[in-house]
Amino acid sequence: MKRPFYIAAIIFLLTFPVLSQKNKIPAFSQYRAKVEKARARGIDFKRNPDARTFRTRLSEALAGGVNFAGHYVVAGWGCGTGCISGAIIDTRNGNVFWPEQFGGIGVWYGNDGYADEPVKYQKNSRLLVILGIPGVKQGQPDKPSGEYYYDWTNNHLRLIKFIPKKMGE
């Protein structure tokens, strides 16, 4: 009689941690990056001709120093009401990366209005969070509004978790 109870209890104890991890929100501390003091002299405009369009914003961001993933700088600027764009700069060499997700982030977030911090990141972590609607390639449909958690790996943002938020919540 006690045996089925013990078996059920053991199965529950073994599966509960796995189930609870699916609902766990990624934390900056889970994606550690060693902060470097690397400092490029400037933006590499030869390798990044598109960067000339945003020369001032990118140069100012680079001058501010590392703010993301150990040796990168997240730079951002407005692209209209409720919209921001940006790029990621490697402070080792001044190379600029243009993640698709930074191409027109919709910062409107349900009935809460605008997100106070639509993009969250830390200098000692590879985790980057977008609150709202990340940009997409031209011709693709918009993504749903919510919380997007990305890992910056090999100079690309890799989606690790999405928590939807319906308009009006």
Task: Give an overview of the whole structure.
This protein has 169 residues and is α+β, with helices and mostly antiparallel strands. It has one domain (26-164). It is built from two helices and eight strands. Strands 1, 2, 3 and 4 form a four-stranded antiparallel sheet that branches. The longest helix has 21 residues, at 2-22. It is globular, with a radius of gyration of 20 Å. The N and C termini lie far apart (48 Å). 29% of the residues are buried.
What are its keywords?
169 residues, alpha+beta, 4-stranded antiparallel sheet, 2 helices, 8 strands, globular
Percent helix: 10-25%
How much of the sequence is in beta strands?
Answer: 25-35%
Number of domains: 1
- Distance between the first and last residues' Cα: 48 Å
Radius of gyration: 20 Å
Major beta sheet, specifics? 4 strands, antiparallel
Mean pLDDT: 85
Total of helices? 2
User: Topology as H/E string?
Assistant: HHEEEEEEEE
Instruction: Count every beta strand, where a strand is a DSSP E run of 2 or more residues.
Output: 8
Low-confidence stretches: 16-21
Class based on secondary structure composition and strand pairing:
alpha+beta
The gross shape turns out to be: globular
